[in-house]
Design goal:
With 412 residues, this protein is α/β, with parallel strands linked by helices. It folds into 3 domains: 2-106, Rossmann fold (3-Layer(aba) Sandwich); 133-356, pyruvate-formate lyase- activating enzyme (Alpha-Beta Horseshoe); 359-411, OB fold (Dihydrolipoamide Acetyltransferase, E2P). It contains 12 helices and 21 strands. It has helices at 11-26, 50-66, 77-81, 83-87, 151-155, 163-171, 198-206, 224-231, 249-254, 261-274, 293-306, 332-356, and strands at 2-7, 30-32, 40-45, 71-76, 93-94, 133-137, 139-140, 159-160, 179-183, 191-192, 195-196, 211-214, 216-217, 239-242, 279-286, 310-315, 359-368, 371-375, 381-384, 394-403, 406-411. The longest helix is centred in the C-terminal third of the chain and has 25 residues, at 332-356. It is globular and about 55 Å long. The termini are far apart. The structure holds iron/sulfur cluster (SF4). The site of iron/sulfur cluster (SF4) has 9 residues, from α5.
Length: 412
């Protein structure tokens, strides 16, 4: 059967879709992830914002355009949150979060309702790394209950994957994969027997000789032992995506984030003490309910002080069922204006960070136009001219000057 798997949302979704693809291929199906004609479409949905949920539903119609008679199965956060809205679009299977990993076995199922979220880590499938880098999921769910976020309700409480299973998956990666990215909903909360153990996983993976990169982290992970440990590893990539969300303490409180801006700043200082050229990036939400001009100014000032390498900026979007959904929303124009202000700051910060870097080791991913393109260990996107094919190689480069959203580089 020709099966098209479409993914919306985060790296965890991407990892889980890769696992679905891999398992369907093992069952002998022809599986692909670009939108084209298929007998069956599987849509892995996202509910992080109402816009993401809307796009997830719109994907059904986009798929049906290619084959109106095809069957459609949906899984993931948006279908867990609002199964009825997907059923109304005439899909044949609503898998939610719990049944996502079993979707390959459910191809013939007529199920129409998502199952409850599991309490333990479901270790039923692994993804096949198909590119230069492999995403490995080590954790699911979250206990933090930030006041704006639906994820703990949709994905359930935090649960960690066994370390043996993680190492097994990583050990089976082909030699052509040079980088492992650890993903999860909240990898900071990774535990073994109830004890925080993220460092242990990184240390074990480091021994495999492939680069190891982390996805999003909470500032609470950055104690001295953790950072010193990382600085002694051979293959760890100094790229820390620390979720800030706001630089204003009063907004952080309303968001139910459990740190102050001063604690966040200390975490950044600690990282820079051991990794002076670390790329420290972050997420910021603008226009959180009640965010005053003064609070927004605090966020701006904090971002300037910390000098992030880059920002992911989101406009607050109300999610029914969260604590923040009961707070008074700001006008869309205010959110848009604040988004634009931070977006300008982002460009400047990005430029400044690139200019601080003179050299890097780039894992080349692909050719884009006239350049080979890849990322340094500290996540600078590099554009390299070369007459020989550099795809999937790690090359030393001199960083010449900012270019597009990265830097123009020369092989040394
Ligand atoms: S840490 Fe907060 S924002 Fe992130 S998944 Fe958990 S509740 Fe949501």
């Amino acid at each position: 059967m020709d099966i098209c798997v479409m993914t919306l949302g985060c790296k965890v979704n991407k990892y889980e879709s890769d696992a679905i693809v891999y398992n369907l291929k093992l069952s002998g199906h022809n599986v692909f992830d670009t939108l084209s004609k298929a007998d069956l479409y599987i849509i892995n949905t996202c509910a992080v914002t109402s816009e993401a949920e809307k796009k997830s539903r719109q994907m059904i119609a986009r798929c049906k355009k290619f084959n109106p008679n095809a069957r459609v199965m949906v899984c993931g956060c948006a279908s867990q949150h609002n199964p009825q809205s997907f059923k109304e679009k005439g899909v044949q299977f609503v898998g939610g979060v719990a049944k996502k990993m079993k979707i390959a076995n459910n191809i013939l199922s007529k199920a129409k309702k998502p199952a409850p979220v599991p309490l333990r880590y479901e270790d039923t499938m692994i993804a096949q790394a198909s590119r230069t880098r492999a995403y490995i999921k080590i954790q699911d769910g979250c206990n933090n209950f930030c006041s704006y976020c639906l994820i703990p309700y949709l994905r359930g409480r935090s649960r960690s994957r066994g370390i043996v299973s993680i190492i097994n998956e990583a050990s089976q990666l082909p030699e052509s994969i040079h980088e492992i990215v650890l993903t999860g909903i909240n990898v900071t909360d990774y535990k073994i027997d109830g004890v925080p153990s993220l460092y242990k996983v990184i240390e074990e993976l480091d021994k495999l000789g492939k680069r190891v990169r982390l996805s999003s982290l909470e500032e609470s992970i950055t104690n001295e032992d953790f950072v010193v440990g990382l600085s002694q590893l051979q293959n760890f990539c100094p790229h820390f995506h620390l979720s800030l969300q706001s630089g204003s303490d009063s907004v952080l409180k309303r968001m139910n984030r459990h740190y102050t801006s001063a604690e966040f700043e200390s975490a950044v200082k600690l990282i820079r003490k051991y990794f002076p050229l670390a790329s420290i990036t972050t997420d910021v939400i603008v226009g959180f309910p009640g965010e005053t001009d003064a609070e927004f100014e605090e966020t701006k000032a904090f971002i300037e002080k910390v000098e992030f390498a880059s920002l992911h900026i989101f406009q607050y979007s109300k999610r029914e069922g969260t604590v923040a959904s009961c707070m008074k929303d700001l006008a869309p124009e205010v959110k848009q204006k604040r988004f634009e202000v931070l977006n300008e700051m982002k460009k400047e910060l990005n430029l400044k960070f690139i200019q601080k870097n003179k050299h890097g080791k780039v894992l080349v991913e692909e050719k884009q136009g006239e350049f080979y393109v890849g990322y340094t260990e500290n996540y600078i996107k590099c554009y390299i001219s070369s007459k020989v094919d550099l795809t999937n190689q790690i090359v030393d480069v001199k960083i010449k000057k900012p270019y597009m959203e990265g830097a123009l580089c020369k092989i040394v």
